[in-house]
Specification:
The chain is 40% helix and 26% strand. The protein is of the alpha/beta class and 376 residues long. The protein folds into 2 domains: 155 residues, Response regulator (Rossmann fold, 3-Layer(aba) Sandwich), CATH 3.40.50.2300; 203 residues, Nucleotide cyclase, GGDEF domain (Alpha-Beta Plaits). Strand 6, helix 4 and strand 7 form a beta-alpha-beta unit.
């Protein structure tokens, strides 16, 4: 049984903080408030008092209330009216309310339910019944609070990886995206590496290095999201992303190429405000398309939503051949965007791990289209 003695434990900076549940007691009779307080305080609850409806609403706005014990018969604004006002506030719609009433009839209960009451307690009440009803409703509230907190944390985490437009789809089917395992899917895989950064980092202090890298990443990752991409991970001074998962994206490879071209322009813009030694930096980008395994890989404690397979390895090796300012794509990626971009065929290259040379192409321009595809 949940009581305040079991307390809520909240981790704050790795320390457990004990928080007492707070109950707002609303009654125009001081002796009734004193009786409720005498029963509840020894159970570990904190009590906030109000003598009428107006004061109750004022106390509610100024305190973090977990439950309301609300008398029905009060002068001025009665309990039903207070209950309606509380429940009509979206921020308090799920705040549990127990109505205290001396009216032991069905009509009074129905009116209370219509007003939004969660439970009733007839006067005179028994201490054990009072505590049981309070505990039951608080248990439900705290479970709901925990679910809302988890959803908020999940949403915050997802914003680090995907654009907000696909988060609702993921949250609508959380089991699909929260368990270990993967599926085979065709996606566009993208690698972007900062050329010249490794040698430059040897001559910069840690704070300057991190500040520079973060400013670059902020700009480039924003471009991934604006172009419907999914951020995968940072690999040193390299960004890995992919298009086509977790949700399908029409023209996924074209979106990836658009992002790459936009990144090259954005990186040049960033360099305008840099000192001469930083202007030597550039980015090389490689894009491949094909079937990968996509899903949560790792352990229950440390899973990583990512893509794996030969397509990924090839994309990274194509990126490694790109000079600063270049966007290189494979033949399979070109097949998805042919006629939509201008390219220049390069000499076939022998990539590490490949028996035969690979055809690669440099992207020169993305042709303007009337309408780009949208996420499905």
């Amino acid at each position: 049984m949940l009581t305040a003695k079991s307390k809520i434990k909240v981790n704050t900076m790795q320390k457990e903080k004990i928080i007492k549940p707070v109950i707002l007691v609303v009654d125009d009779q001081p002796q009734n408030i004193e009786l409720l307080e005498a029963h509840l305080v020894p159970q570990g609850y904190e009590i906030v008092k109000a003598a009428n409806g107006e004061e109750a609403l004022e106390k509610l706005s100024g305190n973090q209330i977990d439950l309301i014990l609300l008398d029905v018969m009060m002068p001025g604004m009665n309990g039903y009216e207070v209950c309606k006002k509380v429940k009509n506030d979206s921020g308090n719609a799920f705040l549990p309310i127990i109505m205290l009433t001396a009216l032991d009839n069905m009509e009074a209960r129905i009116e209370g339910l219509k007003a939004g009451a969660d439970d009733f307690l007839n006067k005179p009440f028994h201490k054990i019944e009072l505590i049981a009803r309070v505990n039951n409703l608080l248990k439900i509230k705290f479970l709901r609070d925990e679910v809302e907190l988890r959803n908020h944390l999940v949403s915050s985490m997802l914003h680090r990886y995907v654009d907000g437009s696909v988060i609702e789809q993921i949250l609508a089917n959380p089991d699909k995206y929260s368990e270990l395992g993967g599926d085979r899917k065709e996606v566009a895989v993208f690698f972007c590496d900062i050329r010249g950064f490794t040698s430059l980092s040897e001559n910069m202090n840690a704070d300057e290095l991190i500040h520079l890298l973060n400013s670059i990443y902020k700009e480039l990752i924003g471009i991934v999201f604006r172009n419907k991409g999914t951020f995968d991970k940072y690999i040193g001074d390299c960004i890995m992303a992919f298009w086509g998962a977790p949700t399908d994206v029409e023209d996924e490879t074209l979106w990836a190429v658009r992002a790459a071209v936009e990144m090259q322009g954005a990186f040049e813009d960033l360099k305008h405000g840099w000192p001469p030694e930083l202007k030597k930096l550039g980015i090389g980008i490689g894009i491949n398309y094909g079937e990968v395994v996509v899903g949560n890989i790792g352990t229950e404690e440390t899973m990583d939503y990512t893509v794996i397979g030969d397509i990924v390895n090839t994309a990274q090796r194509v990126e490694s051949t790109a000079r600063p300012g270049q966007v290189l794509i494979t033949k399979s990626a070109l097949s998805r965007v042919e006629g939509k971009i201008k390219i220049r065929a390069l000499e076939m290259v022998q990539l590490k791990g490949k028996l035969l040379p690979v055809e690669i192409y440099e992207v020169l321009k993305v042709e303007k289209e009337k309408k780009m595809g949208s996420g499905k």
